[in-house]
Specification:
The protein is α+β, with helices and mostly antiparallel strands. It is about 25% helix and about 20% strand. The protein contains 15 helices and 13 strands. The longest helix has 15 residues, at about 125-135. It starts with 8 loop residues before the first helix and ends with a helix. The protein binds delta-meso nitroheme.
């Protein structure tokens, strides 16, 4: 049984709010900060139990996580046995970023010691919680950078800026959730440190029930993405140019904008399927009758599709948790404004928008970093000459070849000259248990 009272709320279920602020800070005075961490922050840290029930959800939920340099600033010198975490994201050469030229300057280096996540229904709630926190923390911290995330409005709620429904297929963690059909079932220890299935040894005992938080500010070039789809419709009898453009976008993602998987709806969106949580994950790329994956047929779903690259399901063999320990729980939120009329008509982004990407895992090297480097950016993964993940694949800013997108011609190769997702950088953090905050980090 996992102790949900002791696990920060964002890890297993996400904050479930429309607004989320990421407040990146440095620790200026460790003694003062430790005192405030115990007296002012810890009482506000929202547990999983609190988020599970509407009646116990705080008006503004709060979580906190620390970088390697943050732990050191607190004089916590234990090795976390995680190489990417120890070095920090800015020196991680594995992510396909063209160095840090596109990065938000504050993410370059290792100055960020921690991040506070504040989530609520309104911006006012977040701002007032932040103001009271800042006055409590005083000079013990310095504010380095903030990013305000917000769910998109009205019908786009739950959809990211390209327009696709997001957050459908997070894994079910053993002991926490009963899986929906097709949902990945992952050992508790693949997400939570020190739990059953955590394959990494040598972590300090206080790290148990914490999780590594990967933060990435991923800019999305939405008008440019839409222009690419408009210019390159799949041409097939019976498809209008608009249908053909929508089909190309859906095949790049592996899902239609509604969330309906292209493997189950290969030609046109089926919004009822997209909405239906008992069906929208119920596929594994294998033939339902033989149970085998056809490793040459991409008519139903390209091998390069974003959701297939990042979770190959039966492509690696079944059962999934015996063939892959590379699952993450995603808890990101969009940031930035809606596309303006001028941006849409000029096909050019004027104001930055994107995804405040958050991923939890018990090992960054097996989780986020693995997915980005060895799956999304690996052109021969999975089943031969596949090319890059067309959504998040990164080639240090150089063009990316993507194969299998055109169902009418599987030999057709498409070269993406620009990236539609541009990394603005981020940091690697550890989100400790509440008891670790109380007994180790604040003493
Ligand atoms: Fe991805 N998107 O909104 O376009 N992602 N993602 N992602 N992603 C998924 O199935 C998106 C990114 C994964 O279980 C969906 O919940 C965007 C990174 C994984 O079948 C959509 C960005 C990494 C899955 C998006 C982005 C991943 C997944 C379908 C960047 C890891 C689950 C909704 C701006 C390195 C796959 C859903 C599964 C799904 C989008 C980034 C990983 C719509 C825009 C960096 C594991």
């Amino acid at each position: 049984n996992i102790n949900l009272d002791d696990i920060q709320g964002d890890i297993l279920i996400g904050m479930l709010k429309n607004m989320e602020l990421f407040f990146f800070f440095g620790i200026a005075n460790a003694t003062d900060f430790k005192a405030k961490l115990k007296s002012d922050i810890l009482p506000l840290v929202t547990s999983t139990t609190q988020l599970l029930d509407n009646s116990t959800q705080p008006i503004t939920a709060l979580n906190i996580a620390f970088s390697q340099t943050g732990l050191l600033a607190l004089n916590v010198t234990d090795s976390m046995s995680d190489v990417p975490f120890a070095g920090g994201q800015a020196v991680d050469p594995n992510l396909g970023d063209p160095g840090t030229t596109n990065w938000v300057p504050e993410f370059v280096g290792t100055n960020i010691h921690g991040v506070i996540l504040l989530a609520s229904d309104t911006l006012d709630n977040i701002n007032s919680q932040l103001a009271s926190l800042k006055s409590a923390l005083g000079d013990s911290v310095t504010e380095i950078y903030s990013l305000q995330g917000a769910a998109r409005p009205d019908n786009e709620k739950g959809h990211e800026h390209f327009g696709f429904l997001d957050g459908i297929s997070n894994p079910a963690v053993v002991g926490f959730r009963t899986p929906l059909p097709g949902q990945a079932v992952v050992p508790t220890g693949e997400i939570l440190v020190g739990e059953t299935g955590d394959r990494i040894t040598g972590r300090p005992s206080w790290a148990k029930d914490g999780s590594f938080l990967v933060f990435r500010q991923l800019k999305q070039l939405v008008p440019e993405f839409n222009k690419f789809l408009t210019d390159n419709p799949i041409q097939q009898p019976g498809l209008t140019p608009q249908n053909g453009s929508d089909l190309l976008g859906a095949r790049m993602m592996g899902r239609w904008k509604s969330g309906a998987p292209v493997f189950l709806a290969p030609l046109a969106d089926e919004p009822e399927l997209g909405r239906d949580t008992s069906r929208n994950n119920d596929f594994n790329y294998a033939d339902p009758t033989t149970g085998l994956v056809n490793t040459t047929d991409q008519t139903k779903c390209p091998f390069s599709a974003h959701i297939r690259k990042t979770r190959p399901r039966a492509d690696l063999g079944l059962p999934e948790n015996s063939t892959s320990n590379h699952h993450i729980i995603r808890a990101g939120i969009p940031y930035g404004p809606e596309v303006s009329t001028e941006e849409a008509s000029s096909n050019t982004t004027a104001t930055e928008r994107g995804l405040a990407f958050v991923a939890y895992q018990s090992s960054i090297g097996n989780g986020f970093q693995f997915l980005q480097k060895l799956w999304a950016d690996k052109t021969n993964f999975v089943h031969g000459n596949v090319g890059f993940d067309p959504i998040i694949g990164a080639n240090k800013g150089a063009s990316r070849v993507v194969n299998g997108l055109d169902p009418t011609d599987p030999t057709r190769s498409i070269t993406l000259v620009t990236d539609f997702v541009v990394s603005r950088g981020g940091e690697y953090f550890f989100s400790p248990s509440l008891s670790a905050i109380a007994n180790t980090l604040s003493v």
